[in-house]
């Protein structure tokens, strides 16, 4: 046991040096075409060239393991914000550090997960540099999926340690492997990484964290443990197979729907899952999951969704009896 643990630790430490220094920030001006791209370590042209308008809220999207800007989630989130307008829209591109490369899935993941540390530290430094240029941290919103959510956490925690606090982090099914359990990084998503940390758990105990880590944690279609989302297949699947990732992916699909289509994921405040089911979703407080979440939201929130778009069920969604069975 000890032997295999120390081997894993050493692997992490050694692979930690595989950071390739290719990360960049991409800033979009009204469309996905021709973004302004700057190295993560020299971000100031974003402000000097007026791609970031410091009067507006700035959204940064961060995708996960082995993903890049052409991935479905990146295109969906970035397009939704561009379409909405009146916000600065950026993508933290860490695709080189995130990719499997020739390592195979497991080693590739260990490499990517350890690289989240360096990417997070450098992103924090980049934000401080932008702050010197006029970016206000009260107008910064990080949105991350999976390992990208953990980068949002590391970035926010790093800034917090230096006395600065970001306004908001939206953490979409934050990655669990190497971020939960005995041998894991401890500086990922947590309630201190921003003033407001809203977390959406769609694959708790699978690819996503099963524990509360936000100021507000949302548990769509939760079943009291490992949860298979409605519309996803049950069973054992190969690592990173489309079927196996189905529940994990829904976190960003729900989120995009709240920017694009409707703010229709009311969720019931409840101390825990047992109370929510016992009371049939009768609650002291209903708030909306997603982009337009109330800044006052605190604690656990439960809801059910449809099994296909539009996923939002409106008021029916707060009642556990309306869960769609697979
Ligand atoms: C953004 O696009 C508008 C119109 O297409 C243009 O006038 C403006 O200069 C562009 N801004 C930047 C920073 O490229
Ligand atoms: C910056 O954003 C503000 C608020 O949306 C807007 O009024 C202003 O025109 C923008 N400035 C530029 C240069 O686009
Ligand atoms: C993004 O990832 C896809 C799928 O892995 C790959 O085919 C594509 O070449 C990558 N694109 C970039 C710009 O890295
Ligand atoms: C509603 O509030 C009361 C009093 O604060 C509390 O005792 C009760 O547990 C709450 N119910 C739910 C479902 O949160
Ligand atoms: C909850 O709903 C079930 C099924 O509709 C019903 O039998 C039960 O009485 C309800 N319980 C409460 C506390 O409302």
UniProtKB/TrEMBL annotation:
Pfam family, any one: Lipase
Signal peptide residues on this chain, from the entry's feature table: 1-22
Keywords: Secreted, Signal
Domain of life: Eukaryota
Principal place of residence: secreted
InterPro entries given in the database record: AB_hydrolase_fold, Lipase, TAG_lipase
Native organism: Papilio polytes
Entry protein name: Vitellogenin
Gene Ontology CC annotations of this record: extracellular space
Subcellular location, record wording: Secreted
Ranges where the Lipase domain occurs: 47-308
Phylogenetic placement of the source organism: Eukaryota, Metazoa, Ecdysozoa, Arthropoda, Hexapoda
Signal in keyword set: yes
Family listed: Belongs to the AB hydrolase superfamily. Lipase family.
GO biological process: lipid catabolic process
GO molecular function list: lipase activity; serine hydrolase activity
């Amino acid at each position: 046991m000890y032997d295999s643990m120390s081997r894993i630790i050493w692997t992490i430490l050694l692979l930690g040096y595989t950071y390739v220094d290719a990360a960049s920030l991409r800033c979009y001006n009204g469309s996905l075409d021709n973004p302004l791209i700057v190295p993560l370590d020299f971000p100031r042209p974003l402000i000097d060239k007026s791609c970031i308008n410091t009067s507006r809220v700035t959204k940064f999207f961060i995708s996960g393991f082995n993903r890049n800007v052409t991935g479905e989630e990146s295109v969906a989130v970035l397009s939704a914000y561009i379409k909405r307008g009146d916000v600065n829209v950026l993508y933290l591109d860490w695709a080189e550090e995130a990719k499997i490369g020739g390592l195979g899935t497991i080693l590739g993941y260990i490499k990517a997960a350890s690289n989240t540390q360096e990417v997070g530290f450098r992103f924090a430094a980049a934000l401080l540099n932008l702050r010197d240029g006029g970016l206000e941290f009260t107008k910064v919103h990080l949105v991350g999926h999976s390992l990208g959510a953990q980068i949002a956490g590391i970035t926010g925690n790093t800034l917090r340690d230096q006395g600065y606090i970001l306004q908001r982090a939206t953490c979409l099914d934050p990655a669990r492997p190497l971020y939960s359990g005995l041998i894991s990084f401890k500086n990922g998503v947590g309630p201190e990484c921003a003033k407001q940390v809203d977390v959406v758990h769609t694959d708790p105990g699978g690819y996503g964290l099963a524990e509360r880590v936000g100021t507000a944690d949302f548990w769509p279609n939760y079943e009291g443990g490992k949860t298979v989302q409605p519309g996803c297949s049950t069973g054992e699947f190969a690592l990173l197979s489309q079927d196996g990732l189905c529940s994990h992916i829904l976190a960003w699909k729900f989120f995009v729907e709240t920017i694009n289509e409707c703010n229709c994921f009311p969720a019931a405040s409840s101390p825990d899952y047992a109370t929510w089911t016992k009371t049939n979703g009768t609650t002291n407080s209903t708030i909306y999951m997603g982009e337009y979440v109330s800044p006052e939201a605190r604690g656990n929130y439960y809801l059910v969704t449809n099994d296909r778009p539009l996923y939002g069920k409106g008021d029916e969604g707060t009642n556990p009896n309306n869960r769609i069975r697979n």
